[in-house]
């Protein structure tokens, strides 16, 4: 965990010092500690780069933890919020919010706590609907069928993705541009309001799933064995599922649909610390944060002055990794 924290700090250092407007470490330290004030440095650091780093870290933490929960519940190493369609369900609900309430996600002026929490609530409803549909169709004789789960997830993902695209095409040109960038998975226009939007969800639900992480170890056993230990299996699975949907929805509401973080981070964490989920959970959260900060840095700098959406960068990395896991699972 110490090494991962150092890697996150290194990625944050690269992110905050590099870009169209380069700054030295001395300039950043003086600005952060208020030893010297410069309006240009203040604008770049506090309004543009620091919010992006914070949002990337928070979203990576949320998706990393949600991925651990979903893989633990389903006992399927290929389970991921994006692959299972939970991202798409939450995203479609947020697009509906944008469409009917005429709010642009990237430029929304949210002045009250109620409005700050509204988009994650819409995302939570959409993600919950997607999860209910997926798990309803994937049940066979009272148990989850893994093959049905993946196939249903793909179908739900496509359906909600089509709904999001249909609604975005009905928007004005400016709203459509914002929605299209958001749906690709982007945090380039992050601000402190978005951080406040997801922070309560991440703190409450993150602490909850970590405290319940020991149950994920038991879920790897046969169901009869778990029941004999006095654990209400289906009830606990449902609670953890709803908590993971809440985490994903909070992330989707501020960053759009970013896939594969919830797939890669748990696998890398298990390679580092073993299979006990009380260790896997925090390590996966840190890996998710580091991956997303680094991916956003790559998207920001490789094609400068243009930018590549962080969701696309993560997909470029994640698709080969997913195929590798798929081949490995067949071996």
TrEMBL record:
GO terms for molecular function: transmembrane transporter activity. The keyword Transmembrane applies. The lineage of its organism: Bacteria, Bacillati, Bacillota, Bacilli, Bacillales. One of its GO terms (cellular component) is plasma membrane. Belongs to the binding-protein-dependent transport system permease family. FecCD subfamily. It comes from Lysinibacillus macroides. Keywords: Cell membrane, Membrane, Transmembrane, Transmembrane helix, Transport. The keyword Transmembrane applies. One of its GO terms (biological process) is siderophore-iron import into cell. It is a multi-pass membrane protein. It is found in: Cell membrane. PANTHER family: FERRIC ENTEROBACTIN TRANSPORT SYSTEM PERMEASE PROTEIN, IRON-UPTAKE SYSTEM PERMEASE PROTEIN FEUC. The chain crosses the membrane at residues 50-70, 82-101, 113-137, 149-169, 189-210, 240-267, 279-299, 308-327. Pfam families: FecCD (PF01032). This is Iron ABC transporter permease.
């Amino acid at each position: 965990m110490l090494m991962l924290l150092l890697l996150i700090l290194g990625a944050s250092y690269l992110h905050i010092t590099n870009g169209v407007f380069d700054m030295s470490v001395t300039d950043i330290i003086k600005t952060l500690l208020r030893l010297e004030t410069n309006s240009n440095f203040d604008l770049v650091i506090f309004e543009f780069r620091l919010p992006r780093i914070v949002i990337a870290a928070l979203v990576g933490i949320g998706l990393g933890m949600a991925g651990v929960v979903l893989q633990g519940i389903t006992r399927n190493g290929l389970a991921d919020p994006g692959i299972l369609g939970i991202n798409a369900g939450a995203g479609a609900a947020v697009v509906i919010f944008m469409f009917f309430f005429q709010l642009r996600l990237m430029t929304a002026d949210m002045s009250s706590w109620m409005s700050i929490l509204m988009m994650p609530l819409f995302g939570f409803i959409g993600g919950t609907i997607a999860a209910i549909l997926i798990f309803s169709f994937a049940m066979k004789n009272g148990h989850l069928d893994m093959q049905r789960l993946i196939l249903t997830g793909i179908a739900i993902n496509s359906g909600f993705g089509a709904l999001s695209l249909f609604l975005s095409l009905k928007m004005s040109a400016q709203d459509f541009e914002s929605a299209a960038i958001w749906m690709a998975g982007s945090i380039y226009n992050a601000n402190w309001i978005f951080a406040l939007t997801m922070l309560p969800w991440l703190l409450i639900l993150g602490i909850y799933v970590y405290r319940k992480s020991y149950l994920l170890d038991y879920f790897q056993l046969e169901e009869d064995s778990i029941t004999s230990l006095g654990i209400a299996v289906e009830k606990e699975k449902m609670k953890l599922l709803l908590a993971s949907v809440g985490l994903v929805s909070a992330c989707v509401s501020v960053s759009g649909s970013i896939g594969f973080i919830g797939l890669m981070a748990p696998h890398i964490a298990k390679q580092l610390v073993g299979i006990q989920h009380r260790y896997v959970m925090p390590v996966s959260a840190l890996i998710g944060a580091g991956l997303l900060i680094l991916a956003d840095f790559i998207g920001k700098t490789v094609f400068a002055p243009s930018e590549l959406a962080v969701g696309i960068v993560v997909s470029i990395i994640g698709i080969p990794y997913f195929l590798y896991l798929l081949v490995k699972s067949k071996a």
